[in-house]
Amino acid sequence: MAGGAIVNTRGGKDYPGKLTLFVFLTCVVAATGGLIFGYDIGISGGVTSMDSFLEKFFPEVYRKEKLEKSTNQYCKFDSQLLTTFTSSLYLAALIASFFASTVTRTFGRKWSMFGGGLVFLIGAALNGAAKNVLMLILGRILLGIGVGFANQSVPVYLSEMAPARLRGMLNIGFQLMITIGILAANFINFGTAKIKGGWGWRVSLALAAVPAGIITLGALFLPDTPNSLIERGHPEEAKHMLRRIRGTDDVDEEYDDLVAASQESHRVKHPWANIVKRKYRAQLTMTILIPFFQQLTGINVIMFYAPVLFKTIGFGDDASLISAVITGLVNVFATFVSIFTVDKLGRRKLFLQGGSQMIICQIIVGTLIAIKFGTSGEGHVSKAYAASVVLFICVYVAGFAWSWGPLGWLVPSEIFPLEIRSAGQSINVSVNMLFTFVIAQVFLAMLCHMKFGLFYFFAGWVVIMTIFIALFLPETKNVPIEEMILVWKAHWFWGKFIADDDIHVGNVEMGIDRSKINA
Ligand code: BGC
Questions:
Q1: Ligand 1 proximity of 168 Cβ (cutoff 6 Å)
Q2: At what angle do helices 235-246 and 252-266 cross, to 10 degrees?
Q3: Cα dist. 184→34, 41, 75 in Å?
Q4: Which residue's CA lies nearest to atom 3 of ligand 1?
C-alpha cells in the first residue's frame, strides 16, 4: 500500500520518490532544446556585422555603413532593414508558439520538441547554403518556428517530469542550455570572423544544425510526461512512467492527483476561453508580465550588442569580441548559482536579490559612461576605465543569470493547472519573443536619444519589477505542480479571485489540510 503524501509546511505535498538517473537524463536531453534559442541569440549579431555577409545580401546597408563617419559614440549606424531581418525570427517564433500549444496538448510534449528541432535544422541548412535574401529570410522564419515550438514545450516538459522539490533545478537546465548556446555562438563568431575567403558567415549559420540535430534526435528517445500521458488517455503507461521516473512503486498518491487534474482538464474544451476566467487571473497576469519584465531588464542589449557597446567605450575589434566572450562565460557560470539554490532559497529570494544587484550595476554603468561621454557622446576612456565598465556589466549579467533569466522560464511553466498549461506557456513565449523583437529593433535609436540615460531607464524598470515580485508573486518552491492552486488561494491579493469551489484537485479528496492554506 502506498505510503502516501506528506503535507508540507506550505500546504502542499511531498510525494515519495527520489531523483532517478532516468529522470535526470531525460531532463538533460530535453533541456538541450534551449541550445537552439541560445545559439541564435549569440550568432546573429556577429554575422550581421561581417563585411562579406553585408556585401552579399545587404549591399546598400554595407555602403552606408562605410560612409558613416559620426564621432558621436551614442549614435551608431542603425539599419532598420538589418535589424528587421534579424528579428524576423522572433516574430515567427511568436506566431509558432500558438500552434505549438495545440501540438503539445494533443500529441504530447515530445512531438513539439521533435518538430521544433527538425524545422530549425532545415532553417539552418537553408541559411548556411543561402544564395539570395529570399533563402536567408525563409531560413530565418523556419528557425523562428523551431524556437517557438521548443520554447513552448521544453519548460513545461521539465516542470512536469521533475519531482516537486527539484523542479527548479531541473527546469533551469533549459536556461543553462540557452546560455551555453549563446557562449558557443560567441566563440564561433570569433573564429569565423577571421576566415579570409568571405564565407565565415556560412559556417556560423550552418553550425546551427548541430544544436538542432541534438534536440531532434534526443526528442525521439524521450518519453512523454505522465501528466500528458494521462491527459491523452493512456493511464497505464502514465503509471508505469511515474514509477520509472520516481524510482519507486509508491506513486499512487501522485498518480491519483494527476488523474484528478486530468479529469478537471477534460471539462475544459477551450483552453483559450478558459484562461481569461477570473479564477486564473493570477496565472494569466504572471505569464504576461514575467516575460515582459524579463526583456525590460535590458539583458538583450548586452547579448545582442555587447561588441558594439564595448567598441563604444573604446575597445578595439578583438578586445570587444573577447569582452563579449567574458560576459558569455559569466552568464553560463552564474546560472549554476540558481540551479543549486532555487529549490532551497526559493524563487522569490533569487528574484529580489538578483533584481537589486542589477539595479545597482545599471546605475553604476550609466554613471561611468555619463562621466566620460556626457551628453555629447564625444570622449575617450582609458583601458582601465573601460575594464571597470565591463566588470560592472559582468556583475549585472550574473544577477540576471540567477534571477530573471532562469525564473522567466521556470515560473510561468509551473503555475498553471493542466487544462490551460499549454496555452499559458504559449502566451509566455509570445510575449517574450515580442519584447525581444521590440528591444532589438529600438535599442540603437534609444541609445542615440537617451544616451547614458538608457541604463537608468532599464534600472527603473528593474525597480518596478522587483517591487511587483515582492508584492504579487507567492513562493512556488517544492509545491507539486498540480497543487499550485493552493498557493494562489493562500495569497493576500490573488486569493480573492479564487472561490472555494474552484479548488477540487487533491485537497479535500486527497486529504490536504485546508487549514494550512491560509496559514
Ligand atoms: C532570455 C533571453 C536572453 C537569455 C540570456 C533568456 O532567459 O529569454 O532573451 O538572451 O536569457 O541568457
A1: no
A2: 140
A3: 13, 11, 29
A4: 300
pTM of the predicted protein model? 0.92
Residues in the chain: 519
Cα of 242 vs centre of ligand 1, distance in Å, is 31
User: CA-CA distance, 271 to 427, in Å (whole number)?
Assistant: 12
CA distances from 153 to 263, 352, 505 (A): 22, 27, 24
Burial of 218 (0-12, 13-18, 19+ CB in 10 A): buried
Q: Is 330 in the pocket of ligand 1 (CB under 6 A)?
A: no
Ligand 1 atom nearest to 291, measured from its CA: 8
How many C-beta atoms surround the C-beta of residue 289 within 10 A? 18
pLDDT tens digits, 211-252:
999 999 999 999 999 999 999 999 999 999 999 999 999 999
pLDDT digits (tens, 9 = 90+) for 132-178: 999 999 999 999 999 999 999 999 999 999 999 999 999 999 999 99
3-state secondary structure of 156: helix
Give the closest residue to 356 by CA, choosing from 413, 384, 387, 398.
398
Three-class DSSP category at 13: strand
Alpha-carbon separation of residue 442 from 88, 303, 393, 431, 436 (angstroms) = 14, 15, 20, 17, 10
Q: Where are the alpha helices (DSSP H) in 415-451?
A: 418-450
Pocket test for ligand 1, best of 39, 40, 41, 333 (most atoms within 8 A of CB): 41
**Atom nearest to 303 CA in ligand 1:** 10
Amino acid sitting at position 33: G
